[in-house]
UniProtKB/TrEMBL annotation, chains A, B:
Name this polypeptide is given: Haloacid dehalogenase-like hydrolase
Signal peptide: 1-22
Pfam families: HAD
One GO MF term: hydrolase activity
Keyword Transmembrane recorded: no
Keywords from the named record: Hydrolase, Signal
Amino acid sequence: MRSRIRAMNRRAILSGAATLLAAPGIRGVAVAAAQADPLPSWTEGGPRQKILDFVGRVAAAGGQDFVAPAERIAVFDNDGTLWAEQPIYFQAAFALDRVKALAPQHPEWKDTQPFKGVIEGDPEALAASGEKGLLQIMAATHAGMTTGVFNGLVADWLRTARHPRFDRPYDSLVYQPMLELLGYLRASGFKTFIVSSGGIEFMRVFAERAYGIPPEQVVGSSGQTRFEIESDGTPVLLKEAKVEFIDDGPGKPSGIDRFIGRRPILAFGNSDGDKQMLEWTAGGTGPRFLGLVHHTDAEREYAYDRQSHVGRLDKALDEAGERGWTVVDMREDWKAVFPPQAWSAP
Amino acid sequence: MRSRIRAMNRRAILSGAATLLAAPGIRGVAVAAAQADPLPSWTEGGPRQKILDFVGRVAAAGGQDFVAPAERIAVFDNDGTLWAEQPIYFQAAFALDRVKALAPQHPEWKDTQPFKGVIEGDPEALAASGEKGLLQIMAATHAGMTTGVFNGLVADWLRTARHPRFDRPYDSLVYQPMLELLGYLRASGFKTFIVSSGGIEFMRVFAERAYGIPPEQVVGSSGQTRFEIESDGTPVLLKEAKVEFIDDGPGKPSGIDRFIGRRPILAFGNSDGDKQMLEWTAGGTGPRFLGLVHHTDAEREYAYDRQSHVGRLDKALDEAGERGWTVVDMREDWKAVFPPQAWSAP
């Protein structure tokens, strides 16, 4: 009896250790792969097998493809890679909803583009206002307030807004197979980062809840902030209407270098804006995994690639073919797309 | 005998677990404080006791000052806080050495300021060239090459250059008590970051070796980089002679927000350039620790504060007095300043 208790205790200690091994950010530890299927929503074979093979190789201590845990950096685009991006980028939906919410305080918007187009639900007028119009909308909705106020607005919106087609909160439209992949990588000693053209502050509001990715592992586009002490002595950061950094296309390798300072060994994207991130990741020595999510599932999600205005996948798809990058066919390779309806980001 | 082996094994398992607990980045774990003195180079009482009290409070599960590990963010200035900064900032010493090394390829420098002043060792001419001269030197030594080439130059310099007074490698002139503090914080579930006006790429070359701070936890000033594919197909990042971000003074709260995205609960600096970082850290709710290293030890290191051109500590010293921030008197509070002579960053 006594020895049985002792054996149990030892098992408890070891299983406690296994939990520790799976904790994010831990180093110097090889994780046993003999566990429950880490990728249950991925179809057998294909990309799933390539992922399992790659992770197994880099985590195998003593193997020729072993990569020290500190170097196991994985980067993921967000829009269209970790969550949906149709019919418009979700951050754009937030911005348009903000314009509508602010309209009563701005009677002049009724007669001024691009705001008139937003308020009247006229996408053509909005499109006609071009990049200048977009910058005006961003300035009106993403600047002129403290970072704290902005974060609160995003949190409120995520709680109340619903996706027009799926009638679910936007942050529940994350891809179940990618959640599994993120967890599997972290359990295998990887540090997972978002590298997205989306707004860094916008993403940080939900990235930790939705993906288990903490704010300090989110890289994105940003506007400048200005430090000020308010009249009551409170220090604040004011969001200014000045672009600081655009983390898209060739900006992604720069963003990775600036924020992470190491070259990733795994990169996942879904559009031409991710091409240079995958090229930069591929350019290092040692084992590499390059992946693209190909949106092929009009029934469960959306089907789009070379002609799409949102998340266009054209040149990067050609390059994937030429260089043997892994292309995930959403319809074929994913058993599930979104988490169950009842799921919501915790 | 058998039970002794069993006991040893159990001890080995437990001590392995203790090592895991001390691993950087681990979450959800309270670390028992009953261990060897974590701060042996700090004099009894004073700042040492304040640090121990603070860390004990925030790490005590169930206590009213408990802070979840994910929120245990600690930020440190680098120059003058983690390593020395006299007689000139070490990165400036690197830049001047680079000018001398490059001079044979630039015969025109013999007759052109600020390079002439550097080559002839004429600090007055150099000072007279002002900020414009400094930017010229930075452009000549920190730009026009790939990030990989630059990192190699810094690594070579750290290996070969010696500090003029101490005749030691620059990266051995780190503060022993601060190394202990960094380790103690990490063992207590903190994530430690550098937030410095120094160049982010320069610091990353040695920060992991010297401080145990990985590249992705270094925040600093930067120049822009540009992604390019070289003619042989190699992707590179070129360092351009354009300032991207100055992480100093009011820039430090912006840098913290941009890179970390959480407000720290502990901040340590040594100069007026750290004032806003400490104010921003102090401005959050819950327990806070604000520290300043005061250079009071001309014998073992340097003594300077309100009048110094390097690392001036004037307004922040006044504010520390008014607000009860912890001021470390280097002469009184540190038993040792640098690691032993034989030590070098691994």
